[in-house]
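Here is one chain, start to finish.
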Amino acid sequence: MWHTGGEVERTRLTERDEQSAQRILLTMAVRDYENDDNADEFAEGIDRQLEAVREWWQTPGPLPAFRHVDPPELKHRDDVEDFLREQKVRELRGHALALFITGHGVSASADTHFLRLPASVEKRPLATAVRTADIVAAALDSHVENVLVIVNTCFAGNMASDLAGVYKEIRSSRASSSRLDVLVTCGLKTKIEVLRFPTLLQAALTRLRTTAGITTPHLSVPDFMGEYARGLPAEDEQKFKLHHLIQGGTYQPSPCLPNPGYIHMPDLLGAIQQQAPLSAEYWLERATGRPQESDTGWYFRGREGLNRTVASFLSPQSPRGVLLVVGCAGSGKSAVLARAVALSNPVFRLTPLYKAAEAISPEDTIPPEGSVTAAVLARHLDAAEVAGALLDALGVPQEEVDATDDRVAVWSQQVQEHVRACGKTVTIVLDGLDEAQEQARIIGDVLAPLAPFCGAPVPGQRQDGTGDTAPPAVRLLIGVRASRTADDAPRELSDDELGLLHSLWKVFPAAQVEHTDSTSSRADMELYLEALIGDAINSETVNEVVPLVVDAVWPSFIDARLAGDQLRSSKDPLALARSEDWYKETLTSGIRGLLQRDLQLVGGDDVPPKVALALLKAAAYAKGQGVPWGEVWPTIAGVFLLPDRLDADQWDRMIEKLLGGRLSGYLAHAVEDDRRVYRPAHEELAEVLLDLDADLLGLGGSDA
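Its structure:
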């Protein structure tokens, strides 16, 4: 009996949890005004509105799906009250409630607004219609944490006075602890155009799925209002834009507003996925070696000695230390780090892709489960952003920093405190340090304070001086650009490379260094290419072409990936593989030659080469993490296309085709200010695109 009671109690808790987490969509639509002249047209328009609302609010995401309550048949004012009572709207509990009200509105002589029903009498709104604010009040004064009401009726703006009075009557504890928003679609004197709302809503939905690039699972109310208004002609904006009559007081995303453009990615990288989904995408893309985002294969091959060293460094036998993975541009530093991040991730280990990687990898090259604590890409980040990203990756909330304080110092101190208090080894993977801003500050103010935790502990050292727990320990796995000659002898490094490496060696004199561009990496590149093109070309041709490609592109794995993708996507891969021009004019020119050829062939994706190049250049010239779509990418690209011009719709079509075509592999994704942004897939590619003297449209080749 005790076990049964426990099961019942757990069930009750679950039900309460489900009730508190539920999200509800209520629609109150008055459609059948049988005595009106345009009754059929109006009813059809109401149906279109409901379809648009249902499509928007069924967007999948990380929170429980909205429970849709079908609209009742509303003829009399009693039907409205019956619906509110049957659905227990005034006593509802949950996380989010979205209420959509539509129909004909009546603007009375006083400052009030009524919802007209089919049985309403024109001269008796008090007795036969419903004061719209009373319906809204039922939702606002419920127990739901977040409430959004949208009213789409004639003269809805006339509700302002009514709603101000309603809001005053809401208990202060609820008004301060809940988020309550009311939007109306019409002004004081504006009549409803029944098809305008669904048309604008559908247009906003399309923009959010394409050009807007907002990455959060939910929208803020201002973002929703802005996207809705983009579809309005300037002359109609004042009449038909959304008016915010009761404002929740925050610009944070609302759980009442799902984002139709949100991409709910498979949870492949556990905590990394939860903290930064597109960061997780970066690590997965580098680890797999896939040429396109949509590719589901695992192509990483070779590097067994280096992977064995990394796995040993991440083992329990090495609780402290610093390992620098160095090499020239494109030589696979990021891939080695990303492989460790992915294969050590507990959630990723449950996926078929991990099983595929495990099957081809010697056991001692796979890092222990959970051995990587935090992974951060430093590309284009300053010291404060790196410290903040590190806290995010560690799952530590960032402290608020006063305007007079130094964010780097505050957040770096938080990292140190976490290391001291967590009671276990903290392993940090940092990639792209050579592409970061404020490299000296990152090393001196973010990494250097961790140096005492990376070396051997002082005998008798305690974690906090009060207990006998193990001393704090840190492992740093860092990727840095620095080249060696083909015979593995150190070459003369550039001033930048010397400065960066010397700074790291000064802080971490015992750091272990491993290179990715030694001559042994030729065999690794051959294995990678064989995996990449093996399904597209017969084995004899693979054996023939792979050594030739490696001779032409080594030590750049980025060039090998692009060359392999050209072979895979060619109409006749055998002819291309045996084409002397391909080797002489394309491969030997490196990433520049590969890009030139793909630009000549991009017309097959219905994108003119000069338009594609303008878009790629715009991505390369963008500051920060990349260029957002919206109005920004076309605007920048338009400069590079002059004197030719495209209108906004043409640019959007071109970008959509570019992202889905052969040139998509030249772009990487990131997130900045909750917007999806696009940038060149590698810094070496960005340098080519930024070269003013490069004639990227001058050469190429046919699609053999």
